[in-house]
Amino acid sequence: MSKLKWILGLSFLAGMLLLLSHCSVSSVPMQVLVPAEVSIEQAIEHVGIMDHSRRNRRRMADLTEGFLTRESIVADATAAEFCLKGLAEKLNASPRFTPVVIYGEQAAGINLYGMPRDLPWEAVQRICDRYRLDALIVLEHYESDIFLKQRGSRKKGEDDESRRHEFKLTISVGSGWKIYVPDSRRVIDADIYRDSKHWNASGKSRREAMRRLPDKREAINQAGYYSGMRYGERISPTWITLTRTYYSKGCPEFETAKRYVRSGDWQAAEQLWLDVADGPDRELAGKATYNLAFSAEIRGKLEQALELARKAYNRFGNRKAFNYMGELQARILERQRLEEQLD
Q: Of the candidates 291, 149, 126, 261, which has an alpha carbon nearest to the alpha carbon of residue 210?
């Protein structure tokens, strides 16, 4: 056998083993509450959301006539309102805050570039007293940039009429936020965050592809809304979906347990995995112990899940359990941070 055939044979065998290994597992989605990136003290529950970028934008339009169009100023002003709505929706979905969007309030503090100076504490206190707020979240800066990239694709042997036109629309948003706490006169967070939203479209002609992209104004508003949602994820605990895999083939017990998992009978599935974990086959015992760790995590028993994953790796050499240990350790640390933010 030639060296090339030997290498190709090994590659084929490795591919088949990888395919079989993926076919031997099943996946289960799970909802997990993760902590916020920015920790806010527990006493703060009722928060106001206010746009202060409009005042800065109006002043900038007066001073930069000829460089910025009125259309772009108005577009960003509308998108900033969508940014507030996105933040409010994300906070409403969180167990942490009760938000209210505030319109029509005025406060001094103008700066043409980047983040403006802090609002006067007298103005912050007045607004918080009026709306019975613990803190005021202020959009101090808002800007957006639009990028449109085009590329044509044509398969070998096709003529120009078969060429497809592809476009990628990107709107980059810079939103600057500050969180004012009037009781302690502290600004908890003061930073400009960058977020981008993308759209892809293709067509047989440039016009057809462009028609499949969203309207410019609509896209700008969607990007603003997305930016507000992203900031909500940064300051508030957020529900995310994790996907966990478990062994569902390899022995009759695994296949039966899979049906129990699908029907939500975790106790019956665990009993089958326990039987296999106590059996003579060390490879199957390691997989069953891994499955028991997975089941413990689903039930919220993270320390127990970590102990079982460690057992699956240390005693039975299950490699999948090694990576799983790191994921569980990260979740335990996140849970500690979450408890600090919610309790």
A: 149
Place of tokens 């085009």: 150
Q: Give the C-alpha separation, 25 to 19, whole Å.
A: 11
Q: Which residues contact 279 (CB under 8 A, 6 or more apart)?
A: 285, 288
Q: How far apart are CA 16 and CA 19, in angstroms?
A: 5
Domains and CATH numbers, the chain: 46-236 (3.40.50), 245-342 (1.25.40.10)
Which are the contacts of 63, defined by CB distance < 8 A and separation ≥ 6?
Answer: 112
E strand or H helix at 31, and its extent?
A: strand 25-34
Helix (H, G, I), strand (E, B) or coil at 262: helix
Angle at 36 between CA 34 and CA 38, to 5 degrees: 160
Which pairing describes strands 98-102 and 46-51: parallel, antiparallel, or unpaired? Answer: parallel
DSSP string, 9-28: HHHHHHHHHHHHHHHTEEEE
In sequence order, the 6+-apart residues with CB closer than 8 A to the CB of 168 are 148, 149, 198, 199, 200
Q: What's the burial of 318, exposed, middle or buried (CB within 10 Å: 0-12/13-18/19+)?
A: buried
Tens digit of each residue's pLDDT (9 = 90 or more) over 293-334: 999 999 999 999 999 999 999 999 999 999 999 999 999 999
Cα–Cα distances in Å, from 32 out to 127, 263, 303? 35, 21, 16
pLDDT in tens, 133-189: 999 999 999 999 999 998 765 555 555 555 788 999 999 999 999 999 999 999 999
What DSSP letter does each residue of 86-99 carry, written as one string? Answer: HHHHHHHTSSS-EE
